[in-house]
From TrEMBL, chain B:
GO cellular component, one term: plasma membrane
Natural source organism: Halocynthiibacter halioticoli
Transmembrane feature ranges: 57-75, 87-109, 115-132, 144-167, 173-196, 222-242, 248-265, 286-308, 328-353, 365-385, 405-433
GO MF annotations in UniProt: transmembrane transporter activity
Compartment annotation: Cell inner membrane
Membrane topology: Multi-pass membrane protein
Superkingdom classification of source: Bacteria
Pfam families per the UniProt record, alphabetical: DctM
InterPro entries, per database record: DctM, TRAP_DctM
Location of the TRAP C4-dicarboxylate transport system permease DctM subunit domain: 12-429
Cited PANTHER family: C4-DICARBOXYLATE TRAP TRANSPORTER LARGE PERMEASE PROTEIN DCTM (PTHR33362:SF5), SIALIC ACID TRAP TRANSPORTER PERMEASE PROTEIN SIAT-RELATED (PTHR33362)
Protein name as it appears in the record: TRAP transporter large permease subunit
From TrEMBL, chain C:
Assembly and interaction partners: The complex comprises the extracytoplasmic solute receptor protein and the two transmembrane proteins.
Coarse class of the protein's main subcellular location: membrane
Name of the protein this chain belongs to: TRAP transporter small permease protein
Record keyword Transmembrane helix present: yes
Membrane topology summary: Multi-pass membrane protein
GO molecular function ontology, one term from the record: transmembrane transporter activity
InterPro entries: DctQ (IPR055348), TRAP_DctQ (IPR007387)
Organism: Halocynthiibacter halioticoli
GO CC annotation terms, alphabetical: plasma membrane
Length: 318, 440, 168
């Protein structure tokens, strides 16, 4: 029997992939040995991000690592991938939402409808602004051209932010050619890892979401063709990748805020930032009104956050 | 098939198809499509089109039609005539002076357009007939124009550096600045070469006769005003860009518009000039875009089939060479490929293979961009296949044979190789200016 | 047969020529969009849509202008050998190798139609704040590629006619 070969394309460029995916793929290939090999390709390498979902659906690419939002998957849950504003506070919120509050089932159903297997969701880093000029009030956000996620961009445009979408690998250059004034795409770990700290000067400590929700997906037919044990191995390695990120980001965020030499930290006062948090709740309701499935997810997110507030410290402070 | 076999199969079929003389984009795209359908597996048929979507997102490519348009406006409207007159009068009294003036003209033309085509057209239509009439050696003259026009892609703005920037994911602004000093250095080296040759053998470039150079000082100074035009166009484009007021693509539109307005103001924008500039801009842009589109598809198939791994593996592991050896080998392979591959195709197919390797070896990608561009320029000029060679053949008068053209470039290519070596040994020649400007 | 080929060429070539002659003014459209982008940025608020519209314009420019470029012989060829050949010999080679080009354009068109169908089915929008629908540009691309294909076939017919000693 010949070796099974998969092509997987990640949302990440090579520098970030070094942490967020390459180790997991190397483990998978080592363990799968002569039975299976996953060949990893980086952002936009084989197909552009805009065509990524379709490519996986058709089988041009066998598997994908991405958030639902940036690859524009044609499902009801797309807006919740990436950074759904203020849905989570910590990176552990995401796996709890998926495993204990029922998001896994909803995702599974939604993706099955479009011929894609949702393998596993995980949490990544929080979403902060990295900018050329300092931001100390909401007023400073006005007119800034910022690279961000589609849904986050929709939300942020009410504060005068001009969201821009470009291929991930072009961001650093776009900062230098003046196409962008800032980036709202990640935490500080990523800013340093991928080189954005070199082209921005300031890091805003207020975030618009505490953790990114992203997933591993596969073409349904390719997935079904795998023997049971390789499916299991796939799941375990993907989960291991989520675990790596949990500590890598959590530790990295703190360490770079304290010791990072390249970016100066600024903050918008909490009372003022409250405007943004309140706007998020309104935004949730707008999204919930769009469809039944979306309403279901929004309710879960509301329920979860209410539970966390009731649970008190260390789940929520203040 | 093994990765190595796929790499060899795809490259060899592409070369073979190119040899048949089919349109370059058809040859490359055809091989890509066949490989995608036969070797990829499920869904391979979508790769060529998904490259078109990738191309759409490459926003810096918007500069391509802008710079091409600028070049055509400049050459078709003959607003460079006045510039030539300026150099002619000022440099004429020297032996070889008109040739030196032509290099000067080329430097200014380079600052106003992004390709070598415009320089070539201006050189061949304005400078060439004049130089021949004055008894300049025809080999010297064709060599000067070809070498001089190649500065077009090294002195900013430069389309080749924009394409390189997209592939290497490096900032265009820094790359452009990195090209300035090497470009001027190369121009100076060409001039030194001309001075020495004409000193040894004045018959190669006779000085203007006395009766042609009795211009009064005030006349001569008035001619200098011609030099203002390129400066205005260059700064109208570069100042907002370098200061971050406008983005790259916006600046290119400002440049194109400024050049267009300059031609209108100077009353050179006739119906015919307008027609030729607008039409040729479309044709040349389409030519470029379709090659890039086909080459992107080829690259994605090549990559997805594992052929890229085979090449990396060959250079770094199997040959076990040290970084500098690999770098020099890469430059040599560029020169060899440049003898039979089209330049744009070379850029879009070969650069994506080499750039990650160069990065992995620890070299500076801005610096490599300059090396890369000069190597491409040399490839432009070396027989049998070179864009500049063909243009020269198309534009030169009958008395200049293909043999003359081939024979004319050797000394200039040697000068360029010397420049290339200097920049390899002293990277600061390229890196000093971008570091100085961007460190502020 | 020659009658059919003549009819084909006489329909396809003028259409592509006219389209190309209109498309060539697209350079001013792109220039206008980018100038608006610069002005709006310097003067007041930068616009959401300029870069994307400029990208769409560029795609339309080279896709719809492509057939005209083929017709005008603007596409470079590696003429190391080709340049020296007789007209007849060129026609011989072209008549075969153009099939490669036709095949490429066919695969491109197939991908374009598939991708457009997906866009229409799911109402695909660009993932930007402006969120334009993608299908208009994809349909433009389908049209451009289809016309490229017709033009390539027209070139094939012209080569066959040359080999038969006729002109179309
Ligand atoms: Na230039
Ligand atoms: Na060459």
């Amino acid at each position: 029997q010949s070796k099974i070969k998969w092509r997987m394309q990640t949302y990440a460029g090579a520098a970030l992939a070094e942490h967020v995916i390459t180790p997991a793929i190397n483990s998978f290939n080592k363990i799968a040995g002569d039975e299976m090999e996953i060949e990893l390709f980086f952002a936009d390498q084989l197909v552009p991000t805009g065509e990524l979902f379709r490519a996986m659906q058709k089988g041009t690419i066998d598997a994908v690592q991405s958030d639902d939002d940036s690859m524009a998957s044609p499902t009801e849950v797309t807006v919740f991938g990436g950074y759904f504003p203020f849905a989570s506070r910590y990176s552990l919120d995401v796996p709890v939402l998926f495993n204990q509050y029922g998001l896994n089932e909803i995702w599974d159903e939604e993706y099955s409808k479009v011929g894609v297997k949702h393998i596993s969701a995980g949490a990544w880093d929080p979403c902060h602004f990295a900018t050329k000029d300092p931001i100390t009030s909401l007023e400073d956000l006005k007119g800034k051209r910022v690279f961000t996620f589609p849904t986050a961009g929709r939300f942020l445009s009410q504060f005068g932010v001009i969201p821009v979408t470009l291929p991930w690998e072009d961001i650093e250059v776009a900062m230098q050619t003046g196409e962008l004034d800032g980036i709202a795409w990640s935490g500080i770990t990523e800013d340093y890892t991928v080189g954005w700290a070199d082209v921005t000067n300031y890091f805003l400590t207020n975030n618009i979401s505490g953790a990114w929700a992203g997933s591993f997906f596969a073409n349904m037919d390719r997935y079904n063709e795998l023997p049971e044990h390789l499916r299991e191995l796939l799941k375990v390695c993907m989960d291991q990748s989520h675990y790596y990120r949990q500590w890598w980001y959590w530790g990295g965020e703190a360490s770079l805020r304290v010791n990072g030499p390249k970016m100066e930290l600024t903050s918008i006062p909490d009372e003022e930032w409250k405007t943004v948090e309140d706007a998020a709740v309104k935004f949730w309701d707008e999204i919930a009104a769009e469809s039944e499935t979306k309403a279901k997810v929004v309710n879960i997110i509301k329920q979860y956050n209410a539970d966390m507030v009731k649970a008190g410290r260390p789940y929520r402070y203040g | 098939m093994s990765y190595e076999m796929i790499a060899i199969f795809m490259f060899a079929s592409m070369m073979l198809m190119l040899m048949t003389g089919q349109r370059v984009f058809g040859a490359i795209g055809g091989v890509a499509a066949v490989a995608a359908l036969t070797l990829w597996g499920t869904g391979g048929s979508d790769i060529p089109f998904s490259s078109a979507m990738k191309l759409m997102k490459w926003y810096p490519l918007l500069t391509l039609p802008m710079f091409i348009f600028m070049g055509y406006v400049l050459s078709e409207s003959k607003i460079a005539d006045d510039l030539y007159k300026m150099f002619h009068v000022w440099m004429g009294p020297l032996n070889g002076g008109l040739a030196i003036g032509t290099i000067g003209l080329m430097v200014l033309v380079s600052a106003m357009n992004g390709l070598s085509v415009a320089g070539m057209a201006i050189g061949a239509t304005i400078a060439l007939p004049e130089l021949l009439r004055r008894g300049y050696d025809k080999k010297m003259v064709t060599g000067v124009i070809q070498a001089g026009s190649s500065l077009g892609i090294l002195v900013p703005p430069s389309v080749v550096l924009v394409l390189y920037a997209m592939i290497a994911r490096q900032p265009v602004g820094q790359l452009w600045l990195a090209g300035v000093v090497p470009g001027l250095m190369m121009a100076a080296m060409f001039i030194i070469y001309i001075v020495i040759r004409c000193k040894l053998n004045p018959a190669l470039g006779p000085a203007l006769p006395v009766e042609e150079r009795n211009h009064s000082m005030s006349e001569k100074l008035a001619l200098l005003r011609a030099g203002l035009l390129p400066i205005v166009i260059f700064f109208a484009m570069m100042i907002p860009f370098v200061n971050g007021w406008t983005s790259l693509v916006e600046s290119s539109a400002i440049g194109a518009l400024t050049a267009f307005l300059a031609a209108v103001v100077k009353r050179r924008m006739t119906r015919e000039v307008f027609e030729n500039s607008v039409r040729n801009t479309l044709l040349i842009s389409c030519m470029f875009m379709w090659i890039i589109l086909a080459a992107l598809g080829f690259g994605a198939v090549f990559d997805g089939l594992g052929a890229v791994r085979a090449i990396d593996n060959l250079f770094t592991e199997q040959l076990g060479l040290d970084p500098w050896m690999i770098l020099i080998l890469m430059q040599l392979s560029f020169l060899i490929m440049g003898t039979f591959l089209d330049d744009t195709a070379m850029l879009v197919i070969v650069a994506p293979l080499y750039v990650p390797l160069v990065k992995m070896l620890g070299f500076d990608l801005i610096w490599y961009g300059v090396l890369y561009t000069i190597t491409t320029q040399i490839a432009y000029m070396t027989p049998p296949f070179g864009y500049n060679l063909f243009l020269m053949r198309a534009m030169a008068p009958k008395e200049i044979t293909l043999k003359d053209i081939y024979g004319s470039i050797l000394p200039f290519v040697l000068v360029m190789i010397l420049a290339l070596s200097l920049i390899m040994i002293f990277p600061q020649i390229a890196l000093w200016l971008p570091e100085y400007v961007y460190a502020r | 047969m020659i009658g059919f080929m003549r009819a084909f060429v006489r329909i396809v070539d003028p259409i592509n020529r006219k389209l190309g002659r209109i498309t060539m003014y697209g350079i001013f459209v792109m220039m206008g969009i980018l100038m608006w982008s610069s002005i709006s940025k310097i003067a007041f608020m930068p616009s959401l849509w300029t870069l994307e519209v400029a990208q769409f314009a560029m795609v339309a420019y080279y896709m719809l202008g492509g057939p005209y470029a083929i017709q005008e012989g603007a596409n470079v060829r590696m003429d190391l050998f080709y340049g020296e050949w007789s007209t007849r010999r060129k026609a011989w080679f072209d008549a075969f190798t153009v099939l490669f080009l036709i095949f490429y354009l066919g695969v491109l068109l197939y991908g374009a139609i598939e991708s457009t169908a997906y866009s229409l089915e799911y109402g695909e929008r660009s993932p930007t704040a402006w969120r334009p629908y993608i299908w208009p540009i994809k349909i433009t691309m389908c049209v451009g590629i289809f016309l490229m294909l017709l033009q390539a076939i027209s070139e094939l017919f012209k080569d066959i006619a040359t080999l038969k000693g006729k002109t179309l």
